[in-house]
Amino acid sequence: MQMNNIPIVFENNEIIIINKPAGISVQGGEGVAHPLDEELSKQMGYKLHLVHRLDKETCGLMVVAKNPAAAAKWINYIAGGNVKKEYIAITFGIPQLNGKEKKQGTIQDNVTKGKRELSAVTHFSVEKTWTTEIPSQNENDESKSLTFSKIHLKLGTGRMHQIRIHLAKAGAPIAGDDKHGNFKLNKMAKKALKIKNLLLCSKKLTLKENGKTTAFEVELPDYFSFENPKE
Fold first, then answer.
1. Given 83, 128, 130, 158, which residue has the most CB atoms within 10 angstroms?
2. What would the pLDDT profile of 24-45 be if each residue is shown by its tens digit?
3. Domains in the chain with CATH codes
């Protein structure tokens, strides 16, 4: 995916905060033609440095450093908990802890990276839940329904795919997640509701520096809102 212009939310002499579109890999690799770090560097006219990652299919706020010294500083800031990340996800169903549906709670479950098992902590709060009727495709089939939840998430740790893995294990896979989610429900939602993207957004960043706290927040993309299918 080639980018024409990456939205910039904030800029100072050390960092840029961007609103990353979904579908863009943040770093180059095999089969990656237009990684974010290269394209944003072209856009700004000088080399930029990653200090953390977002999944390719996840959209939202991300910090990028302007020089190596700033990158080292902000990597340490993030590791030290001075950058708080908050996400919004649309999931199928409601998360379960110990076999019971919960509107809020903490998921603590290891995630695998290579051959290592890493501890991971995700705090969640269900903002709302609703049911969408799916009309039958022919007169012989019964109509079905899908239950969705809008969930606010805060990270206790920052492991790769942590939110996606944790919500799937809790019985509330993120809509549009083709790797860790529910293939059958994704297929139904894609056909009936035109849900094609991963519905996970890095919506808010709160930075602490020199005793000052600054928060940045973006609107959810339009594709997070979908209407009931027509009868």
1. 83
2. 998 866 666 788 999 999 999 9
3. 1-80 (3.30.2350.10), 84-207 (3.30.2350.10)
